[in-house]
Amino acid sequence: MTKKGSIFNFFQVYAKTQPWAVLTWAWVVVFPAIGSLIALINYEELLLLSPQSLLGYLIFMILAAICMGFALLPTTFTAVLTGFVLGWIGLPLLVIAYGLATMLGYSFGKWSNANLWELLCLRYPEISLAVEKRKTQPGGLIFFIRISPVIPFALANFIFASLQVSLKKILLYGIPGMLPRTILSFLAGIVASDFLAAKSSLRDPYQLGFLLFFLLISIWGIWTNWKKSKS
Q1: Measured between alpha carbons, how far is 69 from 56 in angstroms, rounded to an integer?
Q2: Dihedral angle sign, alpha carbons of residues 10, 8, 33, 222
Q3: Are 71 and 32 in contact (CB under 8 A)?
Q4: So where does this one cross the membrane (predicted)?
Q5: Domain count, the chain
């Protein structure tokens, strides 16, 4: 039996013994898209969330953190909505919400996949050795994983939690990694006169060009940091 087959069998067994954990992985992969669709259908109600007081801004920030942390909405959608509804004052609130969402998503992943890493290490000590070596200096990997447009925020939280990466380091290096894509989406919300137009503008050629750039940068960064940590 090949190593690849063995790992596949390991996850098959894990899925049978830990069905709840597998469901949570499926949740963080699939539900943000469903949540985005539901929110778009009811976007007029979302626009009523515009706060009128300090308490209202705090509630908006907490709701944004909950939606992103528990994979109810994608981060890009939340950034567009925040820019459109709050304007520039929403940017620092969004950054704080990212931090809170990271803590929520990390805790959710750690709770639902409590023994995944231990079981994987027992079965494949070579994987444990490779990952532990890279966890000593994870800053570059965290940054480039966060900047990647193809690794969802909630999924990355689960990966970090399952590998038991330090939450402090995820916050320290991950939030700067989120900022480039966040600012693009946030600006789309600010400059648009209509929320649906703001959401559609994310498919404009310049936006797609930036996403391709971030994708290439993230692939290069993850690869070079992984190889560098190997030595």
Answers
A1: 20
A2: positive
A3: yes
A4: 20-42, 54-73, 85-108, 141-163, 170-193, 205-223
A5: 1
- Spatial distance between the Cα atoms of 220 and 223, rounded to a whole number of angstroms: 5
The answer to the question of residue 14 being in a domain is no
Question: Is the CA virtual torsion 23, 135, 164, 215 positive or negative?
Answer: negative
Residue 74 in any domain: the answer is yes
In a domain, 88, yes or no: yes
**SS3 track for the chain:** CCHHHHHHHHHHHHHHHCHHHHHHHHHHHHHHHHHHHHHHHCHHHHHHHCCCCHHHHHHHHHHHHHHHHCCCCCHHHHHHHHHHHHHHHHHHHHHHHHHHHHHHHHHHHHHHCCCHHHHHHHHCHHHHHHHHHHHCCCHHHHHHHHHCCCCCHHHHHHHHHHCCCCHHHHHHHHHHHHHHHHHHHHHHHHHCCCHHHHHHHHHCHHHHHHHHHHHHHHHHHHHHHHHHHHC
Residue 191's pLDDT is 84
State which residues form the domain around 150. Answer: 54-230
Specify the higher pLDDT residue, 71 or 122. 71
